[in-house]
Amino acid sequence: MQASAALAAHTGKLDLAIRHVLAGLGHGIHAGRERGAGVEFSEYRAYAPGDEWRRVDWKLMARADRYYVREAERDSHVAVWLVLDATASMLEPSRSVEGLDKLGYARLLLGCVGAIAQRQGDAFGLLICQGERAHFTPAARGPRQLQRVLSQLDRFDAAGTLPSSEVLRASLHFARAPSVVCVASDFLEWPSPLSEAMLRLRGMRHDVRALCLQTEAEIAADFDASLAWCDPEGRAGGERKLFRFGREARAEYARRREEHFGMVAQQCRAHDIPYVAAPIERAPGEVLRAWLRTRGGRP
Fold it and tell me: What is the pLDDT of residues 220-236, one digit of tens each?
């Protein structure tokens, strides 16, 4: 598993890493079907005023002396929104896979979701949460849009804190139409402006999906006790307090960690938000499958 994560971490170009992860991944983001002028034939129906003449089956008309229109089924097109937490805590590196950190892993998986949306013909856009504003790439379709999104994902390094609740609330205008909203974060801060935005979007009947990324060291509290650590985002009263992981601190950390992420998972379940937690050392394709296999509640 770590070999796959390491390969992704050391692939210089994001688009090449995405191709590697998506090789053999044979399912999409949503599975809705609707009738329309697609390419997969479903049935005939009688012509009705307003139907396009190009959809009339003229051979059947010659036999039946009536106009019939070919119906088809096609994938329903929804907007897909990629939401990236690019705050300072996402800079946390793996202790076992050189060159891999939470932000790079989140970029890769969100890029994969964008590539799948592009293949399906869905419109997709990007929201990067960092600092005093939300960095917004409007939704569009096609290969050029994928390059725009990947370029923006590559542009940001992990730094700072989340935008304020007011800033994120003002950014939710992007989700007027039914959307799939894929959020990648470590969710170390919850409740937060980001969690409030997610719950608000779910309340607006969007399909919101949460991917919680951690390192194996964070999960196991496997930190070097000889080193001092601090909160990179200064959440502890605005000060960057130093911590050391002695035996007592390790036990307290494990207790608080279990309590915190249990609460995050419980609130996601309560609001019908699929929640996947994974270490970044896990093979990206496996995590992507788990994330896309989940289904949020539908309107």
Answer: 887 665 555 566 666 54
Q: Which of 4-13, 113-122, 195-204, 209-218 has the lowest mean pLDDT?
A: 4-13
Instruction: Note whether 288 and 5 are within 8 A (CB).
Output: no
The residues facing 81 across adjacent strands are 125, 181
CB 106 within 8 A of CB 291: no
In 3D space, the residue among 277, 293, 284, 294 whose CA is nearest the CA of residue 18 turns out to be 284
Q: 204-242 burial, b if ≥16 CB within 10 A, otherwise e?
A: eebbbbbbbbbbbbbeeeebeeeeeeebbbeeeeeeeee
Where do runs of H (alpha helix) occur along the chain?
2-10, 14-22, 58-64, 102-120, 143-155, 165-171, 193-203, 216-220, 247-270, 284-293
Give me the pLDDT at residue 140, please: 92
Q: How many residues does the chain have?
A: 299
Report the predicted TM-score, pTM, of the whole model to 2 decimal places.
0.78
Residue 20's pLDDT band, with cuts at 50, 70 and 90, is: confident
Structural domains of the chain ordered from first start:
2-31+77-293 (3.40.50.410), 33-75 (no CATH)
Max Cα distance, the chain (Å): 87
pLDDT surpasses 50 at 116: yes
pLDDT-based confidence at residue 35 (cuts at 50, 70, 90)? very low
Taking CA atoms, 250 is separated from 67, 216, 219, 256, in Å, by 75, 15, 11, 10
